[in-house]
Design brief:
The complex is a heterodimer of chains A (313) and B (254). Chain A is of the alpha+beta class and 313 residues long. Chain A has helices spanning 27-33, 35-44, 126-140, 173-187, 206-212, 248-253, 282-312; strands spanning 60-64, 72-78, 81-92, 103-109, 150-152, 156-168, 193-195, 201-203, 230-238, 241-244, 256-263, 268-272. In chain A, the strands form 3 sheets. In chain A, strands 1, 2, 3, 4, 5 and 6 form a 6-stranded mixed sheet that branches. In chain A, strand 7 and strand 8 (201-203) form a beta hairpin. In chain A, helix 1 (27-33) packs across helix 2 and helix 3 packs across helix 4. Chain A is elongated and about 80 Å long. The N and C termini of chain A lie far apart (50 Å). Chain B contains 5 helices and 9 strands; from the N terminus they run αββββαβαββαββα. In chain B, the strands form 2 sheets. Chain B has a 5-stranded mixed sheet. A 4-stranded antiparallel sheet of chain B has the order 7-6-8-9, with helices on both faces. In chain B, helix 2 (110-121) crosses helix 3. Chain B has helices at residues 10-26, 110-121, 147-162, 188-192, 223-253, and strands at 44-48, 56-62, 65-75, 88-95, 133-142, 171-178, 181-184, 196-203, 208-216. Classes of the chains: A alpha+beta (313), B alpha+beta (254). The A-B interface holds A 66-70, 73, 80, 82, 84, 86, 88-93, 103, 105, 107, 109, 111-116, 119-120, 159, 161, 163, 165, 167-170, 191, 193, 200-205, 248 and B 1, 3, 5-12, 50-54, 57, 64, 66, 68-70, 72, 75, 92, 94, 96-101, 103, 106, 108, 135, 137-139, 141-143.
């Protein structure tokens, strides 16, 4: 049995599930031609091809404020999966049913650079699904209080356009997308604005404020207060094994995935299991939830570190 | 959202821009906003291997202009059904919605895609990959001026990273004409009040120009000597930086 994670050209003896043809073959060829037996052999020894254990996630990094032209932005990397989220604030007239609330418009894009499967005329099937998922989770977790986005009750309020771009797709897309959305909201800085006679809102820079003594509408409210932050973890289920944080290859080979979102208080925000070959019993789901709880602690620390680094700057 | 929304910084920006244009058209000498001289380019940050899903990729940052380019291929394409001795090059440029200061549509920029294709087509040796297609996808993360030259330089770096055979690296710079002055590598504010612009893409080692685009009003009598020579010289230096970036990443992988 070859060492996991190393690309050696060693021959593999034919095992159960592989035909006689696989008796003498290179590792990479075996991986392409018989992906399921390849993974079965690894899983029987409780290890994955990139040398991770079944319940360890890849290295996660968060950096805040990479895009200077946006009001809030964040770049998140989970392993090789890279997501860039940016928030731009615009002014809108609030609806009559909720005159003192703003709104959030979420959009998830998978440009052709992120994966060989996406072409300019053929958008990825999974993009609108993740877009809707993000929107649902952000609204239902009540992470952002929409009343804080109000400027003048009934006349003007903020609409936050949150755009998440996938720069590299290597599995766990929803995890990275939600994490980058949360980080972007944490980084968001609402600009100083004032209102002119026609009721139109315009930005005011620091020096202008002293010179003309314009009446500032939102002097105190520059940052959003983030409520319970939701943290996601995606797992794939294969026979009796649960793999946390799958790569794109693992997601494609083992088609059953389940995504759990918990918030900082331990409440369950969302469970998402889109069909798939494997069936998840309640015991499996409970197992996934406990994995999510553990991973959430790590993610909280990573997010807090990123915020403290930004505040030092 | 059915109702239209507007950005609060629209009015202030327009006023600032008008003030600046009035000021610059009168003056004959001024300091650029980032302290550069007229013939100084912005410092370039180049990195290859940004996206591992692609055959080759590159990330370029020139001041506030940030571009990421991925190259896929040579791979089969549904469009190339007939056999042809030459490969095909397919280019696509997209801007993110937050690239410009006012939120954009996030759709493909067809004009830049066509210009990128023309700039690279002369440098790529298409005979080395018959019947297949090489896809070059560019995503502009932040647009801070002089976007097309940065996209072209970053794309040729990504092609080199992917191992596509080329005659030479293509580097590109642009020059703005404001009044009687020429500014190299303009930022957004400078591009807005320019009278004319020249975008040049060339292969410095072969001293050949792959693309030259001249627009607007030029009040200089001899464009060739001043503007073009300046561009070719800057392209040569930029190609040197691109080469050292490729060497560095080759050393790292060894």
């Amino acid at each position: 049995m070859t060492q996991s994670g190393q690309m050696e050209t060693t021959t593999i003896g034919g095992g159960e599930g592989a035909t006689g043809m696989a008796a003498q073959m290179e590792v990479e060829a075996f991986r392409r031609l018989f992906p399921l037996p390849f993974y079965d052999r690894h899983l029987s020894k409780s290890v994955r091809p990139d040398a991770r254990t079944l319940d360890s996630a890849r290295e996660t990094t968060i950096s805040l404020g990479p895009v200077a032209s946006a009001d809030g932005s964040a770049l998140v990397k989970i392993g090789e999966t890279t997501m860039l989220a940016a928030i731009k604030l615009e002014v809108m007239t609030p609806s009559t049913e909720s005159p003192d609330e703003g709104s959030i418009a979420v959009e998830f894009y998978m440009p052709p650079i992120c994966s060989p499967m996406v072409r300019p005329g053929r958008p990825a099937e999974v993009a609108p699904v993740i877009s809707q998922q993000l929107s649902d989770v952000i609204m239902s977790s009540r992470m952002v209080n929409l009343k804080e986005l109000c400027l003048i009750s009934g006349k003007a309020s903020w609409i936050a356009y949150l755009d998440v771009y996938c720069l590299n797709a290597d599995g766990s897309l929803f995890d990275a997308a939600l994490l980058s959305a949360v980080a972007a909201f944490t980084h968001l800085q609402i600009p100083l604005v004032s209102v002119n006679e026609e009721g139109r809102v315009f930005t005011v820079s620091g020096e202008q404020q002293e010179k003309t003594k314009l009446e500032l509408v939102n002097k105190e409210k520059r940052k959003l207060s983030i409520g319970n932050t939701p943290f996601p973890v995606t797992c794939v289920i294969h026979k009796e094994h649960i793999l946390v944080d799958p790569t794109a290859e693992e997601e494609a080979v083992m088609e059953t995935s389940i995504t759990i979102v918990l918030d900082t208080l331990g409440n369950l925000v969302s469970i998402y299991k889109p069909g798939g070959v494997g069936l998840a019993s309640t015991a499996t789901i409970k197992e996934c939830i406990s994995r999510t709880k553990r991973r959430m602690q790590d993610l909280k620390i990573i997010l807090e570190e990123a915020v403290s680094v930004m505040e030092v700057d | 959202m059915a109702a239209s929304t507007y950005s609060p910084s629209q009015g202030t920006e327009r006023r600032q821009r008008q003030q600046q244009m009035r000021r610059l058209s009168i003056q004959s000498d001024w300091d650029r906003s980032d302290g550069r001289s007229f013939i100084q380019c912005r410092p370039a940050f180049l990195r290859t291997g940004a996206a591992n899903a692609a055959s080759g990729s590159a990330y370029a940052e020139f001041g506030t202009t940030k571009v990421i380019v991925s190259v896929f291929g040579p791979r089969e394409s549904k469009k190339a059904m007939m056999y042809s001795d030459n490969g095909r090059l397919n280019c696509n440029v997209t801007f993110t919605t937050f690239a410009t200061s006012l939120r954009g549509q996030g759709s493909d920029n067809k004009e830049y895609s066509a210009m990128l294709h023309k700039a690279l087509e002369g440098a790529v040796i298409l005979e080395t990959f018959p019947k297949t297609t090489v896809d070059v996808f560019a995503l502009v993360l932040e647009s801070g001026g002089s976007d097309l030259p940065v996209i072209i330089s970053c794309a040729s770096l990504a092609l080199a990273d992917a191992g596509i055979m080329m005659y030479d690296l293509v580097s590109s710079v642009s020059v703005s004409c404001i009044g009687k002055n020429i500014l190299i590598d303009p930022t957004n504010e400078e591009e807005v009040c320019q009278d004319g612009s020249l975008v040049l893409a060339c292969m410095p080692a072969r001293n050949e120009v792959t693309q030259l685009t001249l627009t607007g009003e030029w009040s200089l009598p001899k464009i060739n000597e001043q503007a073009m020579e300046l561009c070719m010289d800057a392209c040569l230096k930029l190609a040197g930086i691109m080469r050292s970036c490729l060497k560095e990443s080759a050393n790292l992988s060894n």
